[in-house]
Design a protein that fits this description.
Structural class: alpha+beta
CATH class: Alpha Beta
Oligomer: single chain
Distance between the termini: 16 Å
Shape: globular
Largest sheet: 4 strands, antiparallel
Order of helices and strands: EHHHHEEEHEHEEEE
């Protein structure tokens, strides 16, 4: 996968579409204003290639959701994921600058292929090497074996944390926590 900071509105909207389906929302529990609600719209975004000619698309009104996901706004940085083989939007990873907590999601057609490991490894690199965060953390539901397995394969280890967590949509879930620590970090400025 290719991961980069969003450049145009489509980068953010397609990334959101990748995690807006029912299966993803069972685990993610995003707020309604962070989702691409209609299935046909989600499918349209996910059928597009990141390099499609979208002249004028970025001039459209930005959604409230986009403001939250712009680099550095509200303390979050997002990387958009594009599948290299077909050039389509595959998902995203996001990191909270204050807590060092990361999250990630994949579009339905890219799940169960080991790509979650790549997402979490990218979040580790973003956190440690580019943002200077010494400990990157992630929470998961104990029953979410795909997420827990991807975190472990990306080098995360079990860590203490609250046993209950409230998702963006208000649902409270059981939680287990993981961390990836790196003693020396390099803060790199500039560039995407």
């Amino acid at each position: 996968m290719l991961l980069y900071t969003p450049v145009i509105a489509l980068d953010v909207l397609a990334s959101a579409a990748a995690g807006s389906d029912v299966e993803a929302q069972h685990w993610l529990g995003s707020r309604a204003d962070e989702l691409v609600q209609h299935e046909d719209t989600r499918e349209l975004f996910l059928s597009m290639r990141a390099d499609d000619d979208l002249s004028g698309f970025e001039a459209r009104d930005r959604l409230k959701m986009m403001r939250r996901l712009e680099p550095g706004s509200d303390g979050f940085v997002q990387l958009t994921a594009v599948h290299v083989a077909d050039g389509r939007y595959a998902g995203a990873t996001i990191i909270n600058l204050k807590s060092g907590e990361i999250g990630g999601w994949l579009a339905p057609s890219y799940r169960r292929q080991g790509l979650g490991i790549e997402l979490f490894r990218a979040a580790v690199q973003l956190g440690h090497r580019h943002l200077g965060i010494k400990v990157v953390r992630a929470g998961a539901e104990p029953t979410n074996s795909a997420s827990r397995g991807a975190l472990a394969a990306a080098g995360f280890t079990a860590a203490p944390g609250p046993t209950r967590f409230t998702l963006g949509d208000g649902r409270e879930i059981d939680a287990c926590w993981y961390q990836h620590a790196q003693e020396s970090t390099a803060l790199r400025r500039g560039g995407n």
